[in-house]
Amino acid sequence: MAKKIYVGNMSYATTEEELRELFAQYGTVLSANIIIDRETHRPKGFGFVEMDEDSAAEAAISQLDGKEFGGRNLRVNEAIAKPRPTRSYRD
User: pLDDT by residue for the chain (91 residues), tens digit each?
Assistant: First the structure.
């Protein structure tokens, strides 16, 4: 089953391709996304990587958390799904 990983404290110059290559050392990367600010259209310094195998994701998390990449020490851990707020509409 695929596992989603949070990657924080990234350099603002990091590309999605660089992120994909970094995690590909540990297994198959299904997706690599860097979050972009809606107003400035610049990277926010964090993103998400989805890996095919749980064991590969665990290896990547343990090896890359705290590792220097692009001049910054990465924060890498399992992404926790945030519940979306429900919107209520008046009739």
Answer: 789 999 999 999 999 999 999 999 999 999 999 999 999 999 999 999 999 999 999 999 999 999 999 999 999 999 987 777 777 666 5
Taking the C-alpha atoms of residue 90 and residue 5, their distance in angstroms, rounded to an integer, is 37
Q: How far apart are CA 39 and CA 67, in angstroms?
A: 30
10 in Cβ contact with 43 (< 8 Å): yes
Reading the block at residue 55, the tokens are 């064991």
HSE on the CB side for 11, CA within 13 Å?
12
Residue 66 CB contacts under 8 Å (≥ 6 apart), including other chains: 73, 74, 75, 76
Helix axis angle for 16-24 and 54-64, nearest 10°, is: 110
Which secondary structure element, helix H or strand E, spans residue 75, and what is its range? strand 75-78
- Helix, strand or coil, per DSSP, at residue 65: coil
